[in-house]
Specification:
Its cofactor is heme. It contains 22 helices and 12 strands. With 501 residues, the protein is of the alpha+beta class. The protein has a single domain (32-497), classed as Cytochrome p450, CATH 1.10.630.10. Bound molecules: protoporphyrin IX containing FE (HEM).
């Protein structure tokens, strides 16, 4: 009688050989690209970094250690090359958005919006229906709407959060600025006919979402669980069925059908309807733009304020410019909000905003792209590298905005003066690379002008009126990444009336 051992050994041996062949094949496709130890076989190092919240710093370290193109998983590369990012996202690029990541951009299962659309021609067509409302302020309401909400925010700070030497009241600046940006963008988007969307309860449905303990979308993406999540989402009840959270905003479709295009002040949604979009589609794109705009702009405001609080030299120089502008323009403190045209003419304010967005960008990694089927040869540094078809390429935004060749040897420092007195090709290159925080080419952000307007006005008015100090400078706020943007909370500050006012 034969013993079972030889066949068992044979089976184990075969499995082992098969595993080795699979690992070899996994590793070989990108073996020519330097990378993390073990990245050819497993995603563990990347996933660990996502969970540890150390992702951004790790990305910067890896790019500095291994070069502008680094292998971080068997089929995933990370780049810090601004030129490669522009190449991948350019209007005629054959790279696509990675469906496994952008699946998370759906607001309800299976319903598309501009950010979730993957197919280039469909995305371009869709974008052309939305873009006119961004590029042209058709009803002239954009600046007055932002001013009205900024005034309310400042009034709230003044009335409810001013501390004195006798008593301190703490204020969460990250939350306060998020309520301001959300309300302003809701009104810009829907117009004055949807007042109920501006009520605190409705706004809280977007702002007070349960704070993630860590970068959950990043985790789902790196562990390839996004598709499973998509299926679970399909099985669960649609968010449109509820009347809170996103539901309240997605439910506007039926009201949009009846809303008249003859309203006095048009919201952007009216233009989308006039351009032939269906009310259901408009409801999804309207909420997408509110979500895309509110987190990013408020993260920019709290990020720049934190930098100003920690850099007294910069704060004092900015104050000098602001005070001079106020006395020149004879602006009364209570009523007038700086006009965007005047803000654009203040060089130091512009430098602070540019430098703040560069140094502490509100949107960061990974904006993943997938290499075209036939692969692509790209120039990285001084060598040409072949990226096989289907390879995922992630962007390390922090590495890009801290590139010493573009921004100078002290790119790791906050120094607004680097933007002053510059012109010619160097300045153009700095601006182009810094603007990559808004994406590039076919996926470029539509809301840049609205964002800059809100940020410039808010920084001007907050600095002009108040002194602020962090209550816990050793741990100023909680920063959690969500779909590549910072969700900031708990930035507790003590606000006092300006001493030298
Ligand atoms: C400082 C503020 C902002 C930053 C840093 C920012 C950044 C970005 C980035 C990086 C993308 C590209 C995402 C990708 O390729 O996957 C994007 C897309 C987009 N952003 Fe912004 N954004 C900001 C403010 C806004 C505002 C205020 C709005 C609207 C009111 C807005 C609306 C959009 C829309 C609709 C898209 C999708 C564009 C497309 O898919 O073609 N953003 N943004």
């Amino acid at each position: 009688m034969s013993t079972p051992w030889p066949s068992a050994i044979y089976l184990v041996g075969t499995i082992l050989v098969l595993v080795l062949i699979v690992l070899y094949c996994r590793d070989s496709a990108l073996r020519h690209i330097p990378g993390l130890p073990g990245a050819g076989y497993s995603s563990l190092r990347h996933v660990r970094s996502i969970i540890s919240k150390g992702l951004l710093k790790d990305y910067v370290t890896w790019c500095r250690q291994y070069g502008e193109l680094v292998r971080i998983e068997p089929n995933v590369l990370l780049t810090s090359s601004p030129d490669l990012v522009m190449h991948m996202s350019g209007v005629r690029s054959r790279y696509g958005k990675d469906s496994a990541f952008y699946l998370l951009a759906h607001l309800a299962p299976g319903k598309e919006n501009l950010a979730s659309l993957l197919d280039d021609p469909t995305h371009n067509r869709h974008k052309s229906l939305l873009a006119p409302a961004y590029t042209k302020d058709i009803s002239g309401a954009r600046e007055p709407t932002i001013d009205a909400h900024l005034r309310k925010f400042l009034h709230d700070v003044q009335s409810n959060y001013l501390s004195t030497t006798a008593a301190v009241k703490l204020m969460d600046l990250s939350k306060g600025s998020q309520y301001f940006t959300t309300k302003a963008i809701i009104e810009l988007t829907y117009g004055p006919d949807f007042e109920d969307l501006l009520e605190d309860k409705a706004v809280a449905g977007l702002v007070e979402m349960p704070e993630g303990a860590f970068n959950m979308p990043g985790f789902l993406y790196a562990t390839r669980l996004t598709k499973v999540m998509g299926l679970i989402g399909q099985l669960m009840a649609s968010k449109e069925d509820t009347d809170d959270g996103f539901g309240k905003f997605l439910n506007v479709a039926s009201r949009l059908k009846n809303s008249s295009a003859e309203t006095k002040r048009l919201g952007m949604v009216q233009t989308y309807l006039q351009n032939g979009m269906s009310p259901e589609q408009v409801a999804h794109d309207a909420l997408t733009q509110v979500l895309a705009g509110q987190v990013t702009v408020s993260a920019a405001i709290s990020g720049i304020m934190i930098l100003l609080m920690s850099n007294p030299r910069v704060l004092s120089a900015l104050r000098k410019e602001i005070d001079a502008a106020v006395s020149d323009g004879a602006m009364s403190l209570d009523e007038v909000i700086i006009s965007y045209a005047k803000a654009l003419a203040l060089p130091y304010l512009q430098a602070v905003v540019r430098e703040g967005l560069r140094f502490f960008p509100p949107t960061v990694d990974p904006l993943p792209r997938v290499a075209p089927q036939e692969g692509d040869s790209v120039k990285v540094g001084d060598r040409t590298v072949f990226i096989p078809g289907g390879t995922r390429v992630l962007t390390s935004t922090w590495s890009i905005t801290r590139n010493t060749e573009v921004f100078g040897e002290d790119a790791d420092a906050f120094r607004p003066e680097r933007w002053i007195g510059l012109d010619g090709p160097r300045s153009a290159r700095m601006q182009k690379v810094a603007d990559l925080i808004f994406g590039f080419g076919k996926g470029r952000c539509l809301g840049i002008t609205i964002a800059r307007m809100m940020i410039c006005k808010s920084i001007f008015e907050l600095v002009r009126r108040f002194d602020m100090a962090l209550t816990e400078p050793w741990s100023p706020m909680s920063n959690v990444l969500n779909m590549g943007a910072w969700e900031r909370s708990g930035m507790m500050v003590v606000v006092t009336e300006r001493e030298d006012n």
